[in-house]
Amino acid sequence: GTTNCTLPQVVIALTIDTNGDFGVNCGTPSSGSLSSSSVSATQCSGSTGFANGLTYTNSKLTIACTSTIPTFSDNAYFNSISGGTFGYDGSSFRVTLPSGVMGLTLGTTITCSGSDKVSALTTDTSGKLKVVCSSDTSSAFSSSNISTTQCASNEFVAGLKAATTTSVGVNCSTRTLPSFSTTSASFKTSSNGTSYTGSMAYDGTSFTVIIPSGMMGSTVSLDSANDSCSGTDKVSALTLTSGVFRVVCTTDDVTPISSVAVTPLNVGATPTATYTTSNKRLTLGIPAGATGAKGDTGATGANGADGISPTISVNSTINNGTAAVSVAKTANDYKFTFTLPTIPTGYTEKYACFKNDGSIQILANSNSSCTSGTKYTMLLKP
Which residues pair with 85 in a beta bridge? Predict the structure, then answer.
């Protein structure tokens, strides 16, 4: 933008464009001299704490404030290391750190020449990372120095041995399996994949496996005080409470059945048998047989008596409540009772006479007459 003014114009305001560059506004000055009374003491602060120019307001030179941070971008030094940048793009600050500020930097010796290989990493006198090179020494050991002889199916590898003067092989042992002491082992179920910690050991002859609690289902124990029945008592039930099994004992009743009762059941029902200990009675439920063939139609009966005409009446009392109608039968009398809705809360029942000539007359009560018109009942809410 404009950066200078041509006389007789002078700078009357400073501006800043979208690129963050300052400019000036020019204007013809009025006569008079500038004094401290002509300069406003207004300062930029708070959310509008950035000055972006000058204005001439109310005969005073005043600072122009803005809440927008000017955008900028420039080179920056970090710990005396150049190559970084620092700037603001209008929405966020951006910082680029040069190499070496946050850690090691590479020195000049970072590769090895010829057939040399990197044998170590170190730093030079200035703290920069470099490599240590050494000649590549090839091993004389190769696949031709390995014996391919394997152990038999009933043998295990016990170690290494010199198969020949120039080859290495395995030393085989005929023992079945090395013994080992109790070792922690993980057991996993195939249903949900849950792992349980148990143990396993081998003494040279047999395995000892301890399966963890809960691996094979719910963990239960037997109550030693209730695990058997004494004398002639017998187990009549089993109980499982909080993972503890108990047996329930009852006296072994050897007295024969004193009576038998038969209860008929419906056709097709399942036969039943129940025993009542109090009276030693066996009750059998026996289904009835299938329905027999239909017999011949019997003789026509005598004519019935003439019917009685019903009496219909209406209860003279009309109840208030939910709208409904009910009927009560007494002998041959049918009495209907009507329930009309109650007036809703806040409403008042009023009466009006809509006359034939189009006029409306508000009546005093339900007993007031309506001449030359029709009387209506209305619910009004103030």
Answer: 75, 96
